[in-house]
Amino acid sequence: MKPLNNHLRALLTAVIGLALVTPATAFDLDSDQPIKVSANNARLDDSKGIATYTGAVELIQGKTRLSAERVVLFRNEAGLSRIEASGNPAHYRQPSREGNGETDARARNITWSASDKELTFEREAVIEQNGNLFRGDVIHYDTVRRVVTAEGGQDTGSGTGRVEMVIQPRNTQGSDGSSQSQ
């Protein structure tokens, strides 16, 4: 994969930021809503602050959902610091902030970092919202700045190895009731 020049990277980031209108936070640790986890198996190592869940894992906070075959929660003195999920694929769903639609993301590995305030989708990553689609080998989403960056992977023959996106036109209602694209 050839590295992107700075101008192309800035343009790509701007386009993606406009195309994927997603919530400002993933799992909100300041929320009054608890994070609930269910799974077939669980192991808690309290001395290390690590809880490992396996088998049809469901992690839910409010309307935000993460489902995977394996989820590991890391805690430190400040509380929950990291979530690592893996599956074939793992799924992440969250309603959009505007209340119209839902962000539906999937990848073989999904990581949420409290300190970085970032969601990372790795290996066969796809994010969809309201007909917009973003696909890459690795997709990073900064939940504070609302910036998405992506990397393509190697061409394995099953895909191009490149970052792909589909952006739906914005439609507005004209004064005569007709639909117009912006």
UniProtKB/TrEMBL annotation:
<feature type="domain" description="Organic solvent tolerance-like N-terminal">
    <location>
        <begin position="36"/>
        <end position="144"/>
    </location>
</feature>
<feature type="region of interest" description="Disordered">
    <location>
        <begin position="87"/>
        <end position="106"/>
    </location>
</feature>
<protein>
    <recommendedName>
        <fullName>Lipopolysaccharide export system protein LptA</fullName>
    </recommendedName>
</protein>
<dbReference type="InterPro" id="IPR052037">
    <property type="entry name" value="LPS_export_LptA"/>
</dbReference>
<dbReference type="InterPro" id="IPR014340">
    <property type="entry name" value="LptA"/>
</dbReference>
<comment type="subunit">
    <text>Component of the lipopolysaccharide transport and assembly complex.</text>
</comment>
<feature type="compositionally biased region" description="Basic and acidic residues">
    <location>
        <begin position="95"/>
        <end position="106"/>
    </location>
</feature>
<dbReference type="GO" id="GO:0015920">
    <property type="term" value="P:lipopolysaccharide transport"/>
</dbReference>
<dbReference type="GO" id="GO:0017089">
    <property type="term" value="F:glycolipid transfer activity"/>
</dbReference>
<dbReference type="InterPro" id="IPR005653">
    <property type="entry name" value="OstA-like_N"/>
</dbReference>
<dbReference type="GO" id="GO:0030288">
    <property type="term" value="C:outer membrane-bounded periplasmic space"/>
</dbReference>
<comment type="similarity">
    <text>Belongs to the LptA family.</text>
</comment>
<keyword id="KW-0732">Signal</keyword>
<dbReference type="GO" id="GO:0009279">
    <property type="term" value="C:cell outer membrane"/>
</dbReference>
<keyword id="KW-0574">Periplasm</keyword>
<dbReference type="GO" id="GO:0043165">
    <property type="term" value="P:Gram-negative-bacterium-type cell outer membrane assembly"/>
</dbReference>
<dbReference type="GO" id="GO:0001530">
    <property type="term" value="F:lipopolysaccharide binding"/>
</dbReference>
<feature type="signal peptide">
    <location>
        <begin position="1"/>
        <end position="26"/>
    </location>
</feature>
<keyword id="KW-0813">Transport</keyword>
<dbReference type="Pfam" id="PF03968">
    <property type="entry name" value="LptD_N"/>
</dbReference>
<comment type="function">
    <text>Involved in the assembly of lipopolysaccharide (LPS). Required for the translocation of LPS from the inner membrane to the outer membrane. May form a bridge between the inner membrane and the outer membrane, via interactions with LptC and LptD, thereby facilitating LPS transfer across the periplasm.</text>
</comment>
